[in-house]
Amino acid sequence: MTNSSSGSLVTASNDKRVTSIGRFLRKSKIDELPELWNVLRGDMSFVGPRPEVPKFVDPSDPLWQFVLEHRPGITDPVTLRLRNEEQLLAKVSDTERYYLEVVQPYKLRGYARFIGDKSWKTDLRIIGRTLRAIVFPTTAILPTREEMQLSYSKTGSYK
């Protein structure tokens, strides 16, 4: 990205701050490689919920508390579904608002479900699906708006 202090904390594929090299790195997911160092150091796991921008986390929300108890990771089922998240965000006018009201709650619900089902078998399956999504990016199918806009209350219950 260009060295700019202004702009949204959420990046869409049409964000003018992203350079041409940055676009290639993001599209190929090569920009994720430095996170492997964090995995080796033990700060992250390979499979686990993605870290969130601290400003966007509500520490008083019980669902966030549950997710934050677990080590963050590079990949998970939600990340695979949202592999092309930047393209999704490019379709809306207010990316940050859409992210906070629709995308992030979808991610949070998915992280909680994933954590509840997590095992070494699911981790191996996710690693395989991640490698497939890297080699064949078009296999990552974005969730529909309906899937993402499920009712969700602050208590973490589903309606």
Relevant terms:
two-stranded parallel ribbon, disordered C terminus, globular, mainly alpha, 4% strand, 159 residues, 48% helix
Account of the 3D structure:
With 159 residues, the protein is mostly helical. The protein is 48% helix and 4% strand. The chain contains eight helices and two strands, in the order H-H-E-H-E-H-H-H-H-H. The protein has a two-stranded parallel ribbon with strand order 1-2. Strand 1 (45-47), helix 3 (62-68) and strand 2 form a beta-alpha-beta unit. Helix 3 packs across helix 6. The relative contact order is 0.15. Residues 151-159 have low confidence and may be disordered.
Question: Total strand count, please?
Answer: 2
Individual helix count? 8
The topology string of helices and strands comes to HHEHEHHHHH
> What is the average per-residue confidence, as pLDDT, rounded to a whole number?
83
